[in-house]
């Protein structure tokens, strides 16, 4: 059974950092991504990573502040978030699938989400 389990969310002050983890079980996917959804807003793309090639893509709003990475041995994807802003507050979701992209339909499997709250 395929599972994606996120962890690492929490409350942090503006300017602080958090590192999210997404542990995958059941299989390894070609591509992983992080999305986020704030209250009353649509789920939006944050970052994506191609598992084998290691190349990544970022939303403009997080570029230079967030870094997506992987630990092949642990089958885990990370999202290092630095210089956090109140507008980064959202539930963050890990996603996995066979296609690389910025759309939710590019990904077949989703985690349960982890809350990130940035106070001003």
- Give the rounded overall mean pLDDT: 95
Instruction: Compute the CA-based radius of gyration.
Output: 13 Å
For the terminal residues, how far apart are their CA atoms? Answer: 40 Å
The total count of helices amounts to 0
Class by SSE composition = mainly beta
Largest sheet: 7 strands, mixed
- Determine the strand fraction and express it as a percent band: over 45%
* H-E string: EEEEEEEEEEE
Low-confidence stretches: none
User: What overall geometry do the principal axes of the alpha carbons give?
Assistant: globular
Share of helix, binned: under 10%
Number of strands: 11
Structural commentary:
This protein has 120 residues and is mainly beta. The protein contains no helices and 11 strands. Strands 2, 4, 5, 6, 9, 10 and 11 form a 7-stranded mixed sheet that branches. The chain has a 4-stranded antiparallel sheet with strand order 1-3-8-7, with no helix packed on it. The protein is globular. The protein starts with a strand and ends with a strand. 32% of the residues are buried.
